[in-house]
Design goal:
single chain; alpha+beta; 4-stranded antiparallel β-sheet; 3-stranded mixed β-sheet; Phytocyanin_dom
């Protein structure tokens, strides 16, 4: 009697778990991602939806743009995933009497990024390049990218949260050809 109860309980737990997982992944398509809008028609007449995402133009910071005091690490986390060939657009005001100048630096490794060591970084955009349409940077390599504002010898990076890292991923293409 006890073994029958244990078997029934185990079966119930497995069934419940499978149901829960299937409901959590209800849009999962087993890698085929076919367009079944005509599911009632005969077999083999389905047309595949061969659309895929094009590279995106992503404005760094969204509507906040590139400025002192905004948490860009948090922004990057919320905006992810980033894909190869996506373009990051850095928009910031040109230097004037009421704003601090900003720039864009690319750090070679995590430690120089973490310490905001501007001496080891490469300057990508100076304070005038972010005005208007902004400065564009294409994520064209599969590697981590470490960005920061290098103005005031790294002060904006250290104290103003003007730094973030991204790791572009390969863009998925479903269905397989």
């Amino acid at each position: 009697m006890a073994t029958k109860f244990v078997e029934s309980l185990t079966l119930l737990i497995i069934t419940t778990s499978m149901f829960t997982v299937s409901m959590a992944n209800k849009n999962w398509s087993f890698g085929f991602n076919n367009n079944y809008t005509d599911w009632w028609s005969t077999w083999g007449s389905h047309h595949q939806n061969k659309t895929h995402q094009e590279p995106r133009k992503i404005i760094v910071g969204g509507s906040e743009h590139w400025h002192f005091g905004y948490n860009y690490t948090n922004w990057a986390f919320k905006t992810a995933p980033f894909y190869l060939n996506d373009t990051l657009v850095f928009k910031y005001d040109a230097p004037n009497a009421t704003s601090f100048p900003h720039s864009v630096y690319l750090f070679p490794n995590f430690w120089s990024f973490l310490n905001c060591d501007v001496k080891k970084a490469k300057k990508l955009a100076d304070p005038t390049q972010g005005a208007g349409e902004g400065f564009n940077f294409v994520l064209n390599k599969w590697q981590p990218y470490y960005f920061a504002c290098g103005e005031r010898n790294g002060f904006h990076c250290n104290n103003g949260q003007m730094k973030f890292a991204v790791m572009p991923m390969l863009r998925p293409f479903w269905p397989f050809p």
